């Protein structure tokens, strides 16, 4: 129930409770709140049982958690055989790898597929320069030409 409350938040709630109700009334307030929560749970459980009994034997395995769309979809995907092929396809496609290859091609770096010769062999056969192939870097000891208009 309180799985998303951290330690600092819990300490803050305790300090606020002590300040608002005082140390004398705090145990009574805690008992009243726990009794209220227990009654709400009992009411909720009895309402669920009434709904299940009214639905009949066809919905004997009905779970109220299935009303949550995410839970329902997850359960349906696990049961459906056709979607297993989709999972296999999804597992074989690596979006990061594809994006890295595109980025490398845009920036002019060699990709593993270009090293294997798939793109370079086609360009060499046509006699056209391969624009995706890594260009030779100029010698770092040599200074680039000075352009007065650019400065």
Automatic annotation (TrEMBL):
Annotated GO MF terms: protein transmembrane transporter activity
Topology with respect to the bilayer: Single-pass membrane protein
GO-annotated biological processes: protein transport by the Tat complex
InterPro entries: TatA/B/E (IPR003369), TatB (IPR018448)
Biased composition range(s): Basic and acidic residues: 131-151
Region listing for Disordered, in residue ranges: 126-151
UniProt entry keywords in alphabetical sequence: Cell membrane, Membrane, Protein transport, Translocation, Transmembrane, Transmembrane helix, Transport
Annotated localization: Cell membrane; Membrane
Keyword Transmembrane in record: yes
Protein purpose: Part of the twin-arginine translocation (Tat) system that transports large folded proteins containing a characteristic twin-arginine motif in their signal peptide across membranes. Together with TatC, TatB is part of a receptor directly interacting with Tat signal peptides. TatB may form an oligomeric binding site that transiently accommodates folded Tat precursor proteins before their translocation.
Family from the record: Belongs to the TatB family.
Name the record gives this protein: Sec-independent protein translocase protein TatB
UniProt source species: Streptomyces venezuelae (strain ATCC 10712 / CBS 650.69 / DSM 40230 / JCM 4526 / NBRC 13096 / PD 04745)
Protein encoded by which gene: tatB
